[in-house]
Design goal:
The chain is an alpha/beta fold. 33% of the residues lie in helices and 24% in strands. It contains ten helices and 13 strands. Strand 6 and strand 7 form a beta hairpin. Helix 6 packs across helix 7, helix 8 packs antiparallel against helix 9 and helix 9 crosses helix 10. The longest helix is centred in the last third of the chain and has 15 residues.
């Protein structure tokens, strides 16, 4: 029985490194590595949680194709409950070409695929009833779920006293706050990146950004601040927690790894400072390897890393 359900986008990532120039038309550019990884916010957060050691289920939609088979097998290989993964016979599995630059930054070409056909009818409510925490991972890239449908699922979970968390994903065609506003009254912890949070709120200062979310009904906010670590605001406290400095190889999945670390702290019942530090540590370890979840370590290994790199 999973403690956490990660509901959201599932994406097959084709990762190439290093890509510092785009080939001219009809030309070939060589890279050192190309790999296939499970990706998408729900997949990345779910796999990271499973690697940390938290019983986890993933809920979303993939195609009835090779990439879909790969995704389901990848989840099952780390012990993820896949009862919530629907298969679409028409749409192909969502996929992304990830170009990792020499400095670890990434650029993307994305096909939305089966994520666009994921609907409330695909959601296994019985599976949600079994969990302790529902994490919405990838809102703004689920056109048939974003807005009121996700709000209803979050409301359902809160009605069962299940903790709810919500993460966003960059979508240049999104209506931002308009798309997530119906969800916010049913969110216990919002964990967006600072850049996405700026787009949603129209504000620049982290405190102001968190205030907008809280005014819309979110109970607590944890902003992923990139090289500035994280900023956490509750009705009673504010925390700014610095990053753990590591040699970055690939920043892919770092935000989802942070979310997994933060969710781990909530499941374990830690205070928010320890939760934020652990989330930063999971994110730091993530960027030390190629792929969205390759660098994530177990709970004990991450705690040991924190001891060795005391802030």
């Amino acid at each position: 029985m999973p403690d956490v359900i990660c509901l959201g986008i599932l994406v097959a990532d084709i990762v190439g490194k290093p890509v510092d120039q785009w080939p001219g038309r009809g030309k070939l550019v060589l890279v050192d590595r190309i790999e296939l990884h499970s990706g998408g916010c729900a997949a990345n957060t779910g796999v990271s949680l499973a690697k940390i050691g938290i019983p986890t289920g993933v809920m979303g939609k993939v195609g009835s194709d090779g990439f879909g088979d790969f995704m389901v097998n990848a989840f099952q290989s780390v012990g993820i409950d896949t009862r919530g993964v629907a298969r679409d016979r028409g749409a192909a599995t969502s996929s992304t070409m990830v170009m990792v630059h020499g400095d670890g930054e990434r650029s993307f070409i994305h096909y939305i695929g089966a994520n666009a056909t994921f609907t409330p009818e695909d959601v296994n409510l019985d599976l949600i009833r079994e969990c302790r925490l529902l994490h919405i991972a990838g809102t703004l890239l689920m056109p048939k779920m974003d807005g009121q449908p996700v709000a209803e699922i979050l409301k359902f979970a809160q009605g069962l006293r299940i903790t709810t968390t919500l993460d966003t994903v960059m979508n240049p065609k999104s209506r931002w706050m308009e798309d997530i506003a119906p969800c916010l009254p049913y969110v216990d912890f919002a964990v967006p990146s600072i850049e996405e949070a700026k787009m949603c709120t129209g504000r620049e200062d982290p405190r102001d950004i968190a205030g907008v979310f809280m005014d819309c009904g979110v109970r607590n906010v944890a902003l992923k601040m990139g090289d500035q670590g994280c900023y956490i605001r509750t009705p009673d406290a504010e925390l700014s927690i610095p990053i753990y400095r590591v040699s970055a190889i690939d920043a892919l999945g770092a935000g989802d790894a942070f979310a997994a670390g933060f969710v781990t702290g909530l499941i374990e019942g830690w205070d928010l400072e320890r939760t934020g530090r652990f989330a930063n540590a999971v994110g730091a370890l993530c960027v030390t390897a190629l792929g969205a979840t390759t660098g994530v370590r177990s709970l004990n290994e991450t705690l040991e890393f924190m001891k060795q790199h005391a802030l």
